[in-house]
């Protein structure tokens, strides 16, 4: 078999270390083959939107556990000619037959491992419709052009990397349960190992159909029939209640949304980030606002990078932000969200006053932003119980020679999504509906809106936060991360590293991160991800423990063993016009530049 794929010549553009400089096009993704697919579009004269479509299709092949056409995502698009920044929201939706109590069985919430691997968890996929809209509105190449590299990858195959191999082995049984998935990733019952060659001919044929007939071929006809049939599966322990509720009408009726960004300020910089139904952008801006009056970055006051004072207030800002997120955030198209109140400086100042400089605050409840909300808002806050979110998903960033920018986070939710591969078509279906509340939070007596309760046609709350950093209205950097709820904190860490600690883009990505995703939660933290950086050592950890923070391990031991996020970024040097890229070694981050 010829194992030299036709796209491999593009690796000549690959630049190590991951930071690359160019006045032309730059692609930063979590996998070299995906970066090569995007670079191929730029080399052929395409723009960042064309390249983004090619990258997303390629990622379906080489990172099938994280994203694909059976899922959805959020694409930030900045158009250089007009200065416009928008988001293409291709988040999955609940089917019309969905109900708030659909994950409740016999009065109790379903067990997550069962519910999330049944068809009940599958949302109506949006990725292809999102790509279609982006290409039609801002792209220059055809859908067939952009899917071509993925067809070649799926048909000719690629070598399984360490990350994919580990995700097959540590899959929570998701590549074992459904036979079509097992046949691809555990042939003969043996999990694929690093270095094995993976060919996906069914997926290649599906991509050929999309290239030849357009996106409609996915949303109606035989593929749509197969999707509906596949999501009708249930786990034996759940019985009929675990079967999916999606119909052909749900697929045919799916439409993405074009959204304006949320805009925030921090130390003279402007951030344009994702609005609801993602909680990512709003919670990011809240956390930055909570730290406005702390001297982050000033080592003389104990707020240098990695110092206990800095980490302490970052953790406290996360706890406050996630408390509000749990109560207030959901799909803004179906419930009212007090965005203005949550981001109002006076509200944030009130919340920040509860951060003590030397001790952990008591578990915070959600705040009440209603007094600062312009329109009438009568719903009182109430925290909703949350479950842990999967650390998987994928993110990439692209800038083209004209200065157009795409920063795109996409997902099938949990690692391997529902674990259901659509028979004969070779792609996995998401389990996105498990991002809704399993137990309805709506309470007419208290007025709780159930912002993230399941509802017909509703989008589940997300954490994705593709973000554009601007100075005087001009793009400076675009970045984002995978990681479930830790997405927000990865983007928060990188933003502070850039704007408060004065790091370069690559330094900001390489630096160890800290994360808390619940008001009561355990602190996750990293050691050294770059040999030249200073990790979060045991001495610092012990100071945080003494302040009351929950860090794994006893005093004097290293509890910072997490791996948090995978940030891929592009940037513009405003002084020279140079385009740069930076990729994250936490996955197989790869920057490719495309000379003019």
Short structural summary:
With 596 residues, this protein is an alpha+beta fold. Helix content is 30%, strand content 14%. Helix 5 packs antiparallel against helix 8 and helix 12 (280-290) packs across helix 13 (308-328).
Can you describe this structure?
Mean pLDDT is 92; it is low at 1-19, 377-389 and 528-533. A 7-stranded antiparallel β-sheet has the order 1-19-18-15-14-11-10. The two termini are 35 Å apart. With 596 residues, it is α+β, with helices and mostly antiparallel strands. β10 and β11 (269-273) form a beta hairpin. It has 18 helices and 20 strands. α1 (32-43) runs antiparallel to α2 (48-62), α2 (48-62) packs antiparallel against α4 (127-138) and α12 (280-290) crosses α16.
Strand arrangement, largest sheet? 1-19-18-15-14-11-10
* Global structural class: alpha+beta
Radius of gyration: 23 Å
Strand content: 5-15%
- Describe the main β-sheet briefly: 7 strands, antiparallel
Number of strands: 20
Instruction: Specify the helix fraction band.
Output: 25-40%
Low-confidence region ranges: 1-19, 377-389, 528-533
The number of helical runs is 18
Which word captures the global form? globular
Mean pLDDT comes to 92
**Spatial separation of the terminal alpha carbons:** 35 Å
């Amino acid at each position: 078999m010829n194992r030299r794929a036709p796209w491999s010549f593009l690796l000549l553009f690959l630049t190590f270390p991951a930071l690359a400089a160019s006045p032309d096009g730059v692609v930063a993704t979590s996998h070299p083959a995906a970066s090569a697919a995007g670079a191929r579009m730029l080399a052929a004269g395409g723009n960042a939107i064309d390249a983004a479509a090619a990258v997303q299709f390629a990622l379906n092949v080489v990172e099938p556990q994280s994203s694909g056409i059976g899922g959805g995502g959020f694409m930030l698009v900045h158009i250089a000619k007009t200065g416009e920044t928008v988001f293409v929201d291709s988040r999955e939706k609940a089917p019309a037959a969905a109900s708030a109590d659909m994950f409740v069985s016999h009065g109790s919430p379903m067990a997550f491992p069962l519910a999330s691997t049944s068809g009940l968890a599958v949302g109506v996929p949006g990725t292809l419709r999102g790509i279609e809209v982006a290409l039609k509105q801002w792209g220059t190449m055809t859908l067939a052009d952009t899917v071509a590299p993925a067809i070649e990858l799926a048909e000719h195959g690629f070598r399984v990397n360490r990350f994919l191999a580990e995700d097959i082995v540590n899959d929570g049984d998701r590549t074992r349960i459904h036979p079509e998935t097992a046949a691809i990733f555990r042939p003969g019952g043996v999990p694929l190992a690093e270095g094995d060659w993976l060919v996906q001919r069914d997926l290649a044929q599906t991509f050929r159909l999309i290239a030849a007939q357009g996106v409609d071929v996915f949303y109606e006809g035989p593929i749509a029939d197969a999707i509906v049939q596949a999501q009708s599966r249930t786990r034996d322990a759940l019985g009929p209640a675990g079967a999916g509720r999606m119909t052909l009408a749900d697929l045919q009726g799916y439409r993405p949304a074009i959204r304006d960004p949320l805009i925030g300020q921090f130390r003279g910089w402007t951030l344009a980030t994702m609005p609801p139904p993602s909680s990512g952008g709003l919670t990011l801006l809240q956390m930055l606002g909570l730290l406005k009056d702390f001297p982050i970055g000033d080592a003389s006051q104990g707020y240098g990078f990695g110092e206990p004072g800095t980490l302490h207030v970052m953790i406290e800002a996360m706890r406050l932000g996630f408390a509000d997120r749990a109560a207030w955030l959901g799909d803004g198209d179906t419930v009212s969200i007090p965005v203005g109140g949550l981001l109002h400086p006076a509200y944030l100042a009130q919340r920040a006053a509860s951060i003590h400089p030397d001790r952990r605050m008591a578990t915070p409840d959600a705040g009440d932003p209603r007094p600062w909300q312009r329109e009438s808002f009568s719903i009182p806050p109430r925290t909703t119980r949350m479950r842990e979110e999967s650390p998987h998903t994928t993110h990439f960033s692209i800038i083209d020679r004209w200065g157009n920018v795409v920063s795109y986070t996409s997902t099938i939710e949990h690692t391997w999504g529902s674990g259901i591969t659509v028979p004969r078509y070779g792609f996995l279906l998401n389990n996105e509906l498990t991002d809704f509340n399993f137990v309805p939070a709506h309470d007419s007596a208290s007025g709780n809106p159930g912002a993230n309760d399941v509802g017909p046609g509703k989008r589940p709350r997300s954490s994705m936060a593709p973000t554009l950093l601007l100075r005087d209205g001009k793009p400076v950097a675009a970045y984002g991360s995978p990681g479930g709820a830790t997405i927000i904190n990865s983007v928060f860490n990188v933003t502070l590293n850039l704007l408060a600690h004065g790091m370069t883009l690559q330094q900001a990505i390489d630096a160890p991160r800290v994360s808390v995703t619940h008001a009561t939660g355990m602190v996750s933290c990293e050691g050294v991800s770059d040999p030249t950086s200073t990790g979060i050592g045991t001495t610092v950890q012990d100071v945080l423990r003494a302040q009351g923070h929950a860090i794994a391990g006893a005093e004097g031991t290293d509890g910072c063993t997490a791996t948090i996020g995978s940030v891929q970024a592009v940037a513009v040097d405003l002084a020279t016009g140079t385009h740069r890229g930076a990729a994250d070694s936490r996955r197989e981050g790869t920057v490719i530049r495309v000379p003019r």
